[in-house]
Each structure stands twice: as C-alpha cells, then as structure tokens.
Amino acid sequence: MKAVVLLSGGLDSSTVLYQAKKDGWECYALSFDYQQRHRRELEAAAKIALSAGVAAHQVVQFDLRAWGGSALTDLAIDLPTERSLQEMSASIPITYVPARNTIFLSFALAYAEAIEAQRVYIGVNALDYSGYPDCRPDYIQAMQEVFRLGTKQGREGEPIAIVTPLIDLKKTAIVELGNRLGVPWEKTWSCYAGEELACGVCDSCQLRLAAFAELGLKDPLPYSFQS
Amino acid sequence: MKAVVLLSGGLDSSTVLYQAKKDGWECYALSFDYQQRHRRELEAAAKIALSAGVAAHQVVQFDLRAWGGSALTDLAIDLPTERSLQEMSASIPITYVPARNTIFLSFALAYAEAIEAQRVYIGVNALDYSGYPDCRPDYIQAMQEVFRLGTKQGREGEPIAIVTPLIDLKKTAIVELGNRLGVPWEKTWSCYAGEELACGVCDSCQLRLAAFAELGLKDPLPYSFQS
User: Fold this and answer.
1) Across chain A, what does the average pLDDT equal?
2) Is residue A227 part of a domain?
3) Which residue in B62, B113, B146 is closest to A98 by CB distance?
4) Considering only CB atoms, which chain A residues are within 8 Å of B69?
5) CATH of the domain at A51
C-alpha cells in the first residue's frame, strides 16, 4: 500500500513523512524545485527522505519566477523579519505563493495515480498564524473532490485520499508529535533565508524556535541569531 | 480586464482563445512543455498566440516522463490508430495523462492570481468520445471551488472564474464556432504523432477530419493519409 508524501524538508512535512511511515504506508516522497530563493530546503528534503527510508524521492522542477508576486520566489521583494507573532496573524503574508498547494497537490495526484498509490499526505496547518488560504480544511475538502472527480482511479474505484495529520495542531503539538516519531530535527530546514545557518529572525524561524522554547526543548539546528 | 487562456495549439484551445478575445478580454496564453512526444503542438500554440494578438504567452516546463502511465508522454506505449469512433468512446483512453487538466488549471490559477486576471478559459469538452474524467462539468465545478477557496483573491474578493465555452459542444459545433471567429486552422495542430504532416489516422486526427467532413468543409491542414 503506497502513499505519496509532499516533502519540503521543513519541520512540518518531515513530521508528516514519519507519520505516514508509522501509519504503515510505503512512502513516495515528492518535492518541488520551483526556483525558491535557496537550495537548503531541497537538501534537507533529500536528507529526510533518506533517513525515513522512502521507496522513492521525486523532485519536480518548474519555474514561476517570471510571474513574480511572492517574496519566496521574487528576489525584488524583501523577506519579512523580526515581526511579532501578532503581526504575522494579521493578514495573508507576502511569502504567500499563488496557488502553491494547488500545484503541489495536483502533481501529487498525478504521481499517486501513476504509481497506484492510495493516499497523499500533506503537512498543511490551519493554525499558528499561517494565514495561507490554501491550508484550511474547506480548501482541502475542495481538493479532495478534485481528486475524486478528476482521475480515472477516482471515477472507477476508490478515490485517492488526502491526509492532513497536522491540520488542527499547534506548532508545539507538531514538535511533540515529531519527537515521539523520532524526526531528526537537525536534518530539517525551516528558515526562509538560505544562509549557512538558519537566521533565527524570519517568520518561519521564529515560529519554530517559539515552539521548541515553549516545550522546554532545545532545537538541535544551529542558528546565527537566537533571542 | 484580463483572462488567462490555456492554449495547447489544437483546434479546441485555439477556438477558445479566439472566443475569449471576442468576449473582450485581454488574453494571456499559457502553454505547457511537459515533454510531450513532439514539439509540433507548442509551435502551433506560438503561431496561434501571435495570430490572436495575445498580451503575453507563457510556457511552463515540467517533466513527468519518469512517472510513465500515458501514451502521450511514455514512449514505451504505442499510440492508438485507426480505431473506430465507437471504440474511442468505450473507455478512458490510454492517451489519458493522470491529473493533466488539474495541473494545467493549477498553473493557470497561479498565473491568473499573479497578474490579477478575472477569468481562466479552458477548452475542455465532455462530448465526442473524449472519455477523460477531467473534462466533465462536475470536475470543472470542483476546480471552481478550489479557485474560490485556495487563493487570496477568492477569499478576499471575487473568485477567478473558469470559463468552458466548448464543454457541451460536439466537434462539428466547435469547428462552426471557430469558423465564425476566424480561427486560422492551418496554424493549429491536433495530431498525436509529430511528423511533418498530420497522420490522419490517430484518434485526434480522425475526430477532426470527421467534423470537417460532416460540415462539408475542407481542413486546410495537410495530412499524410486521409480516408
């Protein structure tokens, strides 16, 4: 029984991969090289896929830089740093990439159908100030309908099911879950910047560090700045 | 007012582009280089985009050949030829590419949101033996929900709307529509094979030739074989 697991190499998707493995699935990791600002994420994804012992790890390449519109792919937009957690929750952040999860889930669906997998795991999370429209339960439900109606497998048999183990979890609960599952945190990468050390001040680093701190745990990843 | 138009360079999508133009939209054509068996389609798309006077024509590249599973991308699978129209309608054809329209519409959604377009035009058609699950109205409706829930624009204002001018039309009605709109048929490409001349015997050529013949029209595209 096969599952496709969307793997960015971050804390969330790494935890999801270990959960899928624990759920008993043969895991096929899927990552994307969409000309993100840096390669650290993809390197982390490769390390985590190896650690988890996946059956295969595919990387799909595409390039959306020509379109602009997001701080994660457009070098002309400055990354937000040192914002308070409250500021983060106020609106859809500029790190939002238009339709990113829709593109990711579409490729996951294609991959799943091609290898006859039964599940697609994705680490979306509707809490913790993410603010992304394509991380919410009603959106996932809509994609599930697309999975059912848009494929041969969904029309003729059992649709491929989207599994979202983290959707209702706070970041602290995700770190607790990952700890129980034995996720090697030092191999993951969350920082929006792509320096040798994680920056410690971008939204993503701040959320991660706050979760470890709240649990009284030490994040084994080295940071260049830690408040 | 902007519309993204999915353009393969075939008869259907070319007609849709001319329809979008007639509807008064500034058109942004979007094509995909997904390592199809041949480049004739993309060359046709470029010619048609130029003829129609689009504001821009983007080509997104990605590669799914590693996954296999379709005669359109997998060179190990033979293309069907000389099947009767009845045989074509019997089942989902092997030219089916898993989740293809879902991937195409996802990129169209990203592009539309990035350029602040209001419409996405797609030449899906639920009739004429297409047999593809991702060409049917209930599937398009499910994607429309994804467009609404999965984007900043859909959450905060008017969702980007999917327009399917051909969904209920028979192939003959599409050719009549294209004629009225002045589509330059000689610049389009429908053949699944990628030879210098269209083959005339694959499913796609047969459907096209049958439609022109039924209308008593001559297809200006040269064919290597015509029954």
Assistant:
1) 86
2) no
3) B113
4) 113-114
5) 3.40.50.620
